[in-house]
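If your schedule permits, I should be very grateful for your opinion on a structural question. Kindly check, if you would, that the fold set down in the tokens agrees with what the sequence suggests. Thank you for your consideration; the sequence and its tokens are set out here:
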Amino acid sequence: MLFWVPLVQTRDFIDQAMELWHQLTNLWNQIVNFLSENPMWTQIGTIVLVVLGLICTIVVLIALVAITYYFRLWIQAKTTRAGISIWDLLAMTFRHVDPEVIVRSKIMAVQAGLNPKEVTTRALESHYLAGGNVPQVIRALIAAHKAGIIPLDWKLATAIDLAGRDVLEAVQMSVNPKVIDCPRPGSGKDSLDGVAKNGVQLKVKARVTVRANLLRLIGGATEETIIARVGEGIVSAIGSAETHQDVLANPAMISQTVLNRRLDANTAFEIVSIDIAKIDVGENIGAQLQADQAVADMELARAEAEGRRAMALALEQEYRALIEENRAKLVQAEAEVFRGMAEAFQTGKLGILDYYKLRNLQADTEMRFALALGKPADQSPHP
């Protein structure tokens, strides 16, 4: 019964077209009879008829092409109750809108039971003229409508599409969450490396399950931000553990710590879960750092000792120079003693007996020093 009404309307349209053709035929016959009855107008009439014939032929050809192109779309719109007339199809052509895209999209919307007050022909044309992907938006609305758990209307769907996002993929990701490997394969990193407080390195691979958040899809951060934030959270969670055994015994502490930080804020996604896929024990970074610090301290101490040795050598050289200087002063002083004794002999202040007594006293003193020290007595000449 639904198909019978459009077929009846189509038949009425054909009957009206045939009646118009008969009227044009009768008008043509009347013009021919008039010209045959008035020979004066025969030549002028012939030229006029040729021109009119050409114009009519061109008009008929254009009409046939238009009917052939639009009739199929109009029949589809009529049989599906899409509410698009043939005049709407003609107007779309003048507005540089592809009628086939609009008709097929409107048919999908009507057949899926979308709200006809939102998904109107004018709305479809406006989104097409704005550069949007009309069929993709309709498919996304149908998927959201069938799922029944995603709040998506025409205004939000078109805004997401014009923002450059794939609205159908976003709806599908809202229904079926997506799993993201962290770190991403092909990024050049095999794992996320963190160091516990005891200095042992842990290599972690995680899988983040995310669901698209349609309300934050416009202006929200992408997957790269989610991966970076999750990586930062995992490294921070490992670094806050006292020992690496604590993390190995309870890997869920990493997931819980990261989830509590609400890393999906201001992003186009909602984190459903963070699962630790693999944990490997790496190098003892703390021991390596301590060994490197010990080597650095030893080199520093060696440099300081070398500096002190150089200072000691310099001080020794200074003392040797001072000794030589004092020895020169002693020799000079001894020379003054000989000069003083000579002057004393000349002036009579010192006699020969006094001199020998002084020598005997000096020799006795040197002998006592030699006996005490176990050394031979000094045989050098004395004044």
Q: What stands out?
A: The chain has 13 helices and four strands. The beta strands are 178-182, 192-195, 200-212, 269-284. The longest strand covers residues 269-284.
